[in-house]
Design goal:
With 287 residues, the chain is mainly β. Helix content is 2%, strand content 53%.
């Protein structure tokens, strides 16, 4: 195990987010929400190819039919496989909301949630894009919809609404995508920062980027197991990648930092790698 933090790309992303390992190309795919752009990084060399998108982009996932599905400001789009095109619109009166984080469940549905541009409490929602391209409004009253993960058996969905400073769990029905019995499994209220993006490892440990704390936490059975410190205060999300899924990739942001804070954190917005000594699970693909 090595907890040395490596810089993969000193990207200076304003709001890097949503890393996902694309096993088809052996590249890490991630977004700069405000770019707005989708990045495809060869983690061996750091070479990054980018796809410009027309609206702010919160999350991206590989698509079984080719290319990617992305959660843009106004809905779900197909990108990277010919001209970008919108699959399904999501109501957004006045353009006051944008999509934030998202991920596919084990069946291939794409779950993604929103945030108001002014971060208004309770203004956001969580949506599910089914494999038949229909959209279900799953939760409302959300403020900053963020990390998602599923247990290896698919019976539990983990979810973060950042200002609650909690990781919640739901019973999850694989066949329908129905969720029930919401409860708190991790409470971060005693610490600094807010939980942001999240992933799960092969042992069932939850890895959470803690915005404002400059760290990624691992939780096992609800208890803090490990803290990985980073040279930036605003890590945003994390994902396992590499050919053996034994490398943890962490995105970050400089959004909201003052000039002096940016001078103190020249790597804010970079993509980082840590080898934590455990393996992740393969990312689920849309469709």
């Amino acid at each position: 195990m090595s907890t040395d933090v490596e810089v993969v790309v000193a990207a200076e992303a304003e709001l890097g987010e949503g890393p996902v390992w694309d096993g088809r190309t052996n590249r890490l795919v991630w977004v700069d929400i405000m770019g707005p752009s989708i990045h495809q990084t060869d983690v061996r060399t750091g070479r990054t190819d980018s796809i410009a998108v027309p609206l702010h982009v919160g999350a991206v996932v590989p698509r079984a039919l080719g290319g990617y599905v992305a959660a843009l400001q106004d809905g779900f789009w197909v990108v990277g496989d010919g001209p970008s095109r919108r699959l399904t619109e999501v109501p957004n009166p006045g353009g006051k909301l944008r999509f934030n984080d998202g991920k596919c469940d084990p069946v291939g549905r794409f779950w993604a949630g929103t945030i108001a541009y002014d971060a208004a409490a309770g203004a956001a929602s969580l949506y599910c894009l089914d494999t038949d391209e229909t959209v279900t409004h799953v939760l409302d009253g959300i403020t900053i919809s963020n990390g998602l993960a599923w247990s290896r058996d698919g019976d539990t969905m983990f979810y973060i609404d950042s200002p609650t400073k909690r990781i919640d769990a739901f019973n999850f029905t694989l066949s329908t995508g129905a969720i029930s019995d919401r409860r708190t499994v991790v409470d971060l209220s005693a610490g600094i920062g807010e939980p942001d993006g999240m992933t799960i490892d092969a042992e069932g440990g939850l890895w959470v980027a803690v915005w404002g704390a400059g760290a990624v936490h691992r939780y096992v059975f609800g208890r803090l197991d490990r803290v990985l410190k980073l040279p930036v205060s605003q890590p945003t999300s994390c994902a396992f990648g590499g050919t053996d899924l034994d490398e943890l990739y962490v995105t970050s942001a400089w959004k909201g930092l003052s000039k002096s804070e940016r001078n103190e954190q020249p790597l804010a917005g970079a993509l980082f790698r840590v080898r934590p000594g455990v393996r992740g699970v393969a990312a689920h693909v849309y469709g």
